[in-house]
Amino acid sequence: MNLMVLILAAGKGTRMKSDTPKVLFKAAGKPMVDYVVDAASGLGAERINVVIGNGAELVQKHLAGKAEFSVQTAQRGTGDAVMAAADSISGFNGKVLILCGDMPLVKPETLKNFIEAAEKHPISFMSVKVKNPFGYGRVIRGIDGSVIKIVEEKDATEDEKREDEINTGIYLCDSKELMARLEGMDCNNAQGEYYLTDIVKKGSYAHLCKDETEFLGVNNRVQLAEASRVLWDRLAEKHMMNGVSLLDPKTFYCDGTVEIDNDVVIYPNVFLEGDTKIGRGSVIYSGTRIKDSVIAENCEIKENCLITESHVGAESHIGPMAHLRPGSVLEGDNKVGNFVELKKAKMGIGSKSSHLTYLGDAEIGKDVNIGCGTITCNYDGYSKYKTIIEDGVFVGSDVQLVAPVKVGKGALIAAGSTITKDVPADALGITRAKQQNMEGWVSAWKKKKGVE
After folding, report:
1. Residue 257 burial by CB count (10 A; 0-12/13-18/19+): exposed, middle or buried?
2. What is the pLDDT of residues 362-407, one digit of tens each?
3. Which fold would CATH assign to domain 3-215?
4. Domain spans in the chain, listed from the N-terminal domain onward
5. Residue 381 vs residues 375, 378, 419, 444: alpha-carbon distances, Å
């Protein structure tokens, strides 16, 4: 079958109350229109055409290289949106699948089943029975069960409004028949718009689906949250069936691009985003957000950590309340503890920084201990510089390493030091002032101040 997919994405989304085009709002971490385009691509469509209007430039930029575009200059209904693509449709010989850009929940397998069932019919659409049909176009059938028409809410009689079978807004049409019926449309209705439902005549085929959840259209932010929750629930079920333990699936927030190995345990309120991979046997505790990062096998990510564009090697322990910024690489068996921040920092195997430390633009060898309160001073107000700490170094508490600086293998940096020059291997680096104890000074000072 020659298949063209037409995606209607021109709506303003007034009820979203935003300048952002509705179809670019994210559901479960991904713009709604992306779900629809991905589903279309999975059908092997020869062409994908997206009808754009409000925020056209933003949508076109976002989908560049994934589709061709038609512009609906004035929003005068769904029929008008399809007519905006008339040039593209008239030059195509095959089936046209019409989808809505604000319906991210329709499963690819549902669309495949529809195409297979409707292939021999010139005009077909998907319908579903719902608990609350208010606001939807009703499917009106005859005594024999055949489709007579679709009637919109504002044009329906009281009897017609009692029907619970609705039009989902998804159609499959012969391109030539579609063009012929578009040419015969008018706007003589309650809204003064061109209804795409008018292409449905007596004898058209309605493919009745079972799950109304798939056809939730997103018109406001409440419905956007509902759609996101459905997508997250699907992903939670998928990961649990693949051997991941989710202590509370209802507070598991995960993008569809995330990979999680089996025997991973994830506590409530964890966010996994982008191109993230979680290795087998790792545990992710509550309040943590991980984006575009790799967590290798048997790691422990404690509470309230933020990890972005980083690599955490096997057997490492992170947090609680640690921040790994882009470019951080831990080679394995590392500890990055309470209130430690890394940025473009590499730590060799077995190195540790347990608390209250900033390591930026640093190259740290293996088996290095970084004491509490250490800072790599990497910025002079104009440029960034690197700190190099070789294998086996011990850095005491409250140390400032003013880059560019290098600490040689096995050296020791005394607590309270500000290191501005390279420290040779096996040396003690120390910059303390000499301590003086002035006996009786406190009593004399209090007497002078008149303090008892």
Report:
1. middle
2. 999 999 999 999 999 999 999 999 999 999 999 999 999 999 999 9
3. Spore Coat Polysaccharide Biosynthesis Protein SpsA; Chain A (3.90.550)
4. 3-215, 325-452
5. 16, 9, 18, 44
Contact 432, 417 (CB under 8 A): yes
Contacts of 444 (CB under 8 A, 6+ apart): none
- Token pair recorded at residue 234: 């699907």
Residue type at position 212: E
N- to C-terminal Cα separation, the chain: 98
* Set 311, 317, 323, 355: catalytic member: 355
Q: Is 147 exposed, middle or buried (0-12, 13-18, 19+ CB in 10 A)?
A: buried
In order, the DSSP letters of 121-138 are -SEEEEEEE-S--TTSPE
CA–centroid distance for 147 within its chain = 40
Task: Tell me which H or E stretch contains 340.
Answer: strand 335-347
pLDDT digits (tens, 9 = 90+) for 43-71: 999 999 999 999 999 999 999 999 999 99
Residue 204, phi then psi, degrees to nearest 5: -65, 155
- Give residue 442's pLDDT: 94
Give me the pLDDT at residue 336, please. Answer: 98
- Residue pair 265/279 in contact (Cβ under 8 Å)? The answer is no
Would you say the C-alpha torsion 325, 326, 327, 329 has a positive or negative sign?
positive
62 belongs to the catalytic site: no
For tokens 């629809």, name the residue. Answer: 36
- 95 in helix, strand or coil? strand
The secondary structure of residue 145, as a DSSP letter, is S
Quick check: 449 and 405 in contact, CB under 8 A? Answer: no
CATH 2.70.70.10 fits 325-452, yes or no: no
The dihedral sign for the CA sequence 246, 248, 249, 255: negative
Mean pLDDT of 1-29: 94
**What CA–CA distance (Å, rounded) separates 161 from 155?**
9
DSSP-assigned letter for residue 434: P
- In which residue are the tokens 């509490």 written? 372
From CA 201, how far away is CA 132, in angstroms rounded?
Answer: 25
Neighbour count for residue 356 (Cβ, 10 Å): 17
Same fold: 3-215 with 325-452: no
Indicate whether 449 pLDDT > 80: yes
Could you tell me if 392 and 365 are in contact, meaning their C-beta atoms sit under 8 angstroms apart?
A: yes
